Amino acid sequence: MGSACITFPTDITGKEPRQLLELVALPSEQEHASTRLSGSTNELLHAVVGVIDEIVLRAMRERTAKGFEKTAREAFTSYFAAMVALGALIRITVPERDIDWLAAQSLTELESDFKNLGAAKFGSELRDRGLFTVWTLRKIHDLSDELKNAELGDNAKQFAMNAVWARFHIDILVKSMKSDMAIFPDVVDKIADGLRAAVNAYAWLRQEVDRISGVSEPELQPVAWDNEDEVLLSDSMKNLGREKC
Fold it and tell me: Is residue 209 part of a domain?
């Protein structure tokens, strides 16, 4: 499985694509469930995050690339459902004014984890890939603000599968950093592949923004990208040898 080209059935995303936009920034690691929230809300969040931890551990225990690939695919449907449940719980229990703050805090803490713990745990190369992926998820979170009042199409489902697949692999690395569990050498390339799905997620979301804003793809009108968008494009071009998603 080239993780940058995942092929899960789109029905795992459900019928309401809007709820999928926020999944990439949810606090899916127990230490990241916030101190700003009420005690009862944090207890509920910790319960769901505990389920997510157990799902992540299934893949982490694998020592071989083949075993990891098989277990990760089997676990992903449950992981996706748990992340959707976490998002629903946050929408019910967290004031709307605090949801964006919670997402920003979660991404900031993920970046801090990789900067402070990543190199010592699994080397600078995978740490840098993790940091780039979290940075991409932040770009995705910011871009999704443009779709808050829009009617979303199938691009949003493709975006969600790629974004949550990347987030699944981020959570594996975070779990490793916060525990005594190592990432086995034979699995490193599979995890790196999974992280690359974040670039595909950004591309799907950008297509949805362009569709809704009326950008006509055949006319090839220039899009006002900033320097960060160019970095994302450069990274995605490195995968030209892979099967097109």
Answer: yes
